[in-house]
Amino acid sequence: MSAKIHIERLMHRSSIAVAGESAASYSLIKLVPSGNEGTNSLPLSIALVLDVSGSMYEEDGLGMSRLQRIQQAALAAMAKLKPEDTLALVAFAHDAQVVLPCTRMADRGAVEDVIRCIDTFAIDPGGTAMDKGIALGLQEVEKDAGPGRVSQVVVLTDGETSGEESCRQFAQQAADKKIRLTMIGVGTEWNAPLIKDLSRLSDGRWCYIDVHQAQEAERIFVEEFGRLSATVFTNVELHLRPIKEVRIKRFRQVVPEIRELKLREAGERHLIAHLGTLEKEQARRYILEMSLPRRPDGKYVITQMEISYDLGSGRREKNGPLPLEMQYTAAGHGYVNAEVAKHIDEVQIFELNNNLQKALAAEDAVEARRLAENIAKKGDLMGPRAAKKTMLARQLLDELQQGGRVSKKTQLAVDDAARLAEDVAVS
Known about the structure:
Strand content: 25-35%
Shape: globular
CATH topology of the largest domain: Rossmann fold
Structural class: alpha+beta
Order of helices and strands: EEEHEEHHEHEHEHEEEEEEEEHHHH
Radius of gyration: 23 Å
CATH architecture of the largest domain: 3-Layer(aba) Sandwich
Number of helices: 10
Oligomer: single chain
């Protein structure tokens, strides 16, 4: 059996009653990549772009400098890479320098040597020119880009940066070239809105390293490199063809993290969502939000869906089309599917958090308190599966109560937790 992406569909309710002209409905779409034991992941071209400015030499609260902690984490992550993968290393501070050109991991010793001595290169530490680092990282992965390879730039910083607009332009250029950015913030002084913008523009992701947790840097690096090294499917697209009068309102990824995905109109009643890359045996989950028209009682197809993807050959493969069906009944709404409801609850906390972050940025303590209270209440209703989100919301409320302000660490922790699905089974 060659590698395939299987599609599973679950409706929020077993049936729907539409009293007015239309009613909201949700569907959970699971994409389950699979293949036989001989299915190989695709080779990688990675540029690791590291901040080596003066603040990275400060101790992280655990007796080690931030840079040393990151060096250890990067060395541990190297074990996830294959001999045919390539890695380039860029260091940036006041300026930027390629300290290791694109090198195959078959020469693992040479790569590890450069990581260990990255602090010895002549780079002026008095600044943070992340835009120059990203530019060099993109240049390096492009040297090795081509059909059947996955290109990724992993950027780490612990502070503000110059050239914000240039950073955004480079992120957009990366997206146009199918190169994604992984943005990692260390500590609490990095520019969170910029980091999130760059991950969104490049269709990438962002991570936060708490410097007071000794194993956090290694965990994030190992997970990220492991995820990349398991990539089998590239340029994955979901095609949706809703039936007349069915309106697609929103489409969000909910596992492994929550993020809204754009839907592009490719023709009449034909929408496409770009899903990026998928890893072997790692399921993704999405919530499709729709508006359904009134119908007589009965079962109806509300949209057709199809997955297309590339296995590295440059040739598009397809799975589908498959119908998404809804049972109509005037007798009243049917039972709620607990698995779908779980993800809808998490999306609602995610949206509340987005508004909370805006209130905190505007220093609107009253609105921030109201939103944090709503997150805590929603978490209480969700029970153990939202324990961390509830705890952090209450911590934020305590800080507002005591001093009227929220620490940057708590703000980042709340934001980080809100976008991650808590993996607790629903009974």
